[in-house]
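User: quick one, fold this
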Amino acid sequence: MTTTTPTRGQIERTLSQRIQGFYREQLGHQPSKVTCQLNDRNLVIVIEDSITPPEQLLAQQGHQELAEQVRSDLDEAIRPQLKDIVQEILNVDVVEVLSDAKLETGRTGMIVILSDLPNFRVPSANAKLRRRDGNNRHEEESN
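Assistant:
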């Protein structure tokens, strides 16, 4: 059985789903949306509603600095596991992970610097047209 190389979109969706699941499993909190975008040797991740209820409570009670410290400590604690997820899915080494979170917006942003360009399939325009028309590749090639 041959396996096909995934497209960039498939890789980005897989990363998004795995990161969202990771937050749910490790922090007991599911972000509303995780967006991943591959760009050359960089991976940009935006996590919506990433701030956990305890952090929100601390911030609402006027303990902004403590909430920010908790967020910073959590980011530090989960960074190695997030790095492992990215390396596993992309099959390239992670050189560095840069991240920041804003309690005010509930967003976390990450830039992951990769050692190499990940391998992915670029779908051809013809393949997209064939799928849209309902024809398969073998019918096109036999005509």
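User: anything notable?
Assistant: Residues 8-142 form a domain with the Threonyl-tRNA Synthetase; Chain A, domain 2 fold (CATH 3.30.980).
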